[in-house]
Amino acid sequence: MHDRIRLGLNVDHVATVRNARGGHAPDPVRAAQMALKAGVDGITAHLREDRRHILDKDVFAIKEVCDTFGRPLNFEMAATEEMVALAVEMKPHAACLVPERREERTTEGGLDVVGQLETVGAAVAKFNALGIRSSLFIATDPAQVRAAALVKAPVIEFHTGALCDSFREQEDVIFNNELSRLQAAVQQAHDLGIEVHAGHGIDFDTVGFIARIPHIRELNIGHFLIGEAIFIGLEASLHRMRDLIDAAHKGVRE
Ligand SMILES: CC(=O)[C@@H](O)[C@H](O)COP(=O)(O)O
Ligand SMILES: NCC(=O)COP(=O)(O)O
């Protein structure tokens, strides 16, 4: 029985703003520190192959800050040799394998575990052996969930982008379909003994129906919270999100 869903802050887009001008401000490491002080359960950082936001030095510094607070770093990365080597050197709490295409604006869809069983399986096995929790960022597709179990991934993070977009665009048919798929996929993963996380595109309006789904243990939220921090501050935006998660999750039977 879990009475609380963990909230992880993704600090990528603090680095996006910094990199728009080069230089050092705003600093994603400082954002991670402030968020941890404000009570967030962990930090997510995605080191993209093109280094468009988070840089190598950021992720190592964020790992140190997380260690100081005794809270996890969820290191998002493509399943490439370069990134696997970096994760092995850094030893984050968790390494989340995500799909990456250079030309995409943001992460589109989930990792194709079915089509890359060998590559993904090798990375998961390496991380499992080193005590790094592997997480696979996948779509709500039953075949991908089965493949995640096959490669012995302890954690899955479901991509909630299409669900959240359809809610905002008031595309009711797509929304209902996406929500049913997420509910079914979470239950399937849970039944297979996999810990379930969710993330992408979540905001104050969409977090409720996601947090109401039993068996989701962690939500990783970034772009919206960093944007909202401009208007109400980082701490207030984190606390509001925390309250919304708790209110939605109250009474959910695990
Ligand atoms: C995998 C994921 O959902 C996050 O890392 C998110 O994609 C933030 O990074 P981008 O906006 O660069 O995709
Ligand atoms: N893995 C999802 C994540 O870290 C945050 O995604 P977003 O809230 O920035 O869309």
From TrEMBL:
Catalytic activity: 3-amino-2-oxopropyl phosphate + 1-deoxy-D-xylulose 5-phosphate = pyridoxine 5'-phosphate + phosphate + 2 H2O + H(+)
Cellular component terms (Gene Ontology): cytosol
Active site per the UniProt annotation: 46, 76, 200
An example molecular function term from Gene Ontology annotations: pyridoxine 5'-phosphate synthase activity
Keyword terms of this UniProt record: Cytoplasm, Pyridoxine biosynthesis, Transferase
Record-linked InterPro entries: Aldolase_TIM (IPR013785), PyrdxlP_synth_PdxJ (IPR004569), Pyridoxine-5'_phos_synth (IPR036130)
Annotated protein name in UniProt: Pyridoxine 5'-phosphate synthase
EC number in record: 2.6.99.2
Superkingdom of the source species: Bacteria
Source organism of this protein record: Asticcacaulis benevestitus DSM 16100 = ATCC BAA-896
Subcellular location: Cytoplasm
Pfam families listed in its UniProt record: PdxJ
